[in-house]
Amino acid sequence: MTARNTKKGSEIPQGVIARLPLYHRHLSELADRDVQRVSSAQLGQEIGLTAAQIRSDFSYFGSFGQQGYGYRVQELLQQVSIILGLEKDYHLILIGAGNLGKAIASYANFRKRGFIIEAIFDANPLLEGNYLAACLIQPVDKLEAYLDSHTVDIAIITAPSEATPKICRCLVHHGVRGIWNFSPVHLDVPDHVVLEHTHLTDSLLRLSFRLNQQRSDS
Amino acid sequence: MTARNTKKGSEIPQGVIARLPLYHRHLSELADRDVQRVSSAQLGQEIGLTAAQIRSDFSYFGSFGQQGYGYRVQELLQQVSIILGLEKDYHLILIGAGNLGKAIASYANFRKRGFIIEAIFDANPLLEGNYLAACLIQPVDKLEAYLDSHTVDIAIITAPSEATPKICRCLVHHGVRGIWNFSPVHLDVPDHVVLEHTHLTDSLLRLSFRLNQQRSDS
């Protein structure tokens, strides 16, 4: 391998970080298809970026390219995985076993990436004792006791909005450092807690804005 | 009302556009609670932005603020709604009635904002004739006939990845201009089609990256 334009060690810019999951997804697809190497031009075409952009981004991860040869898919995927923190398993819990909770718990992709949901909680007493994706649904009032006796890296909240702030405070109080929230409410967490929001309505509003803007342009 | 620093008419920057759904969400909450007016400082505190940032953003929407009085919630909400294209109803269809499809179809917030799912399609023949959120599930091979005879503004794809590219081509071919895709596949659409992706795994990867980065910082 020939190092070229390697920026490894320098801080990775936000724009590159935002594209890491995209790279991971496409490199995984290539690896699944047993593709050994890929050029920046090919990869760029598949994901809608220029070859130069890809070369510039990848130079932050180390030197995996060779002029005229392309990138070694497996090595590059491994490097992206390490940067993303995917070389280890994460202990997850899910709070809220409604439709969205069911969808999340059943999503095979998460498990494949090392995100294992180990406990599910719900406020509905009728769900108690049921299983969801091979995981027992427990009453939400057992959440505190669970957090006291188990390591939880990431908690996914798919509970109703009005219940979410209290759940979040409980998680933070018990030392959970990663929270993925689907409720359309603003949550305050201390700096050491990483909070990721997925607001489904926001996506639909962005879509309608862009549709609308296009109409007024044409 | 006193106009001040109004930039109305100038093109709205991407950063402001990205915050529009956030503003819409918070102003809706305030309106639901019958709050008449809000200062940029209050609003900023609630959503984690500075008062100056909020004043600068809102100046693109017209003049709704008054020194020492704050913003009129209803008027501002209406203006944000118009910019987002929410003053009209949208005809939606959903393809894929699995767990995620069920969650989306049952999400009351969409209907409240004027996004009405009028038809649901699924490839599973066992689901045919079932109802989901008061909407009949039809076999996916009836999708083309439906598109021929109905106006569809936005199609939501919650189908398996392998089925998604074909569905997308069919939608584009029949003139659907808005597509919201949940499958982790890259889709090519012509420029006149607005495509919004929600990749759930990407959110989890971002979360794990940030968790991991924090650990290596500390």
CATH architecture of the largest domain in chain A, by name, is 3-Layer(aba) Sandwich
Structural class of chain A: alpha/beta
Going by CATH, the homologous superfamily of the largest domain in chain A would be: NAD(P)-binding Rossmann-like Domain
Number of strands of chain A: 10
Quick overview of this protein structure:
Two copies of one chain form a homodimer. With 218 residues, chain A is of the alpha/beta class.
Structure description:
- 2 copies of one chain form a homodimer.
- Chain A is of the alpha/beta class and 218 residues long.
- Chain A contains 9 helices and 10 strands.
- Helix content of chain A is 43%, strand content 18%.
- Chain A is globular.
- The N terminus of chain A is likely disordered.
- At the A-B interface, helix 1, helix 5 and helix 9 of A face helix 1, helix 5 and helix 9 of B.
Can you lay out the helices and strands and say which pair or pack?
Two copies of one chain form a homodimer.
Chain A: H1 14-32, E1 37-38, H2 40-47, H3 51-58, E2 65-66, E3 70-72, H4 73-84, E4 90-95, H5 99-105, H6 108-112, E5 115-122, E6 131-132, E7 135-139, H7 143-149, E8 154-157, H8 164-173, E9 178-181, E10 194-197, H9 200-217
Parallel strand pairs in A: 4-5, 4-8, 5-7, 8-9, 9-10
Antiparallel strand pairs in A: 1-3, 2-3, 6-7
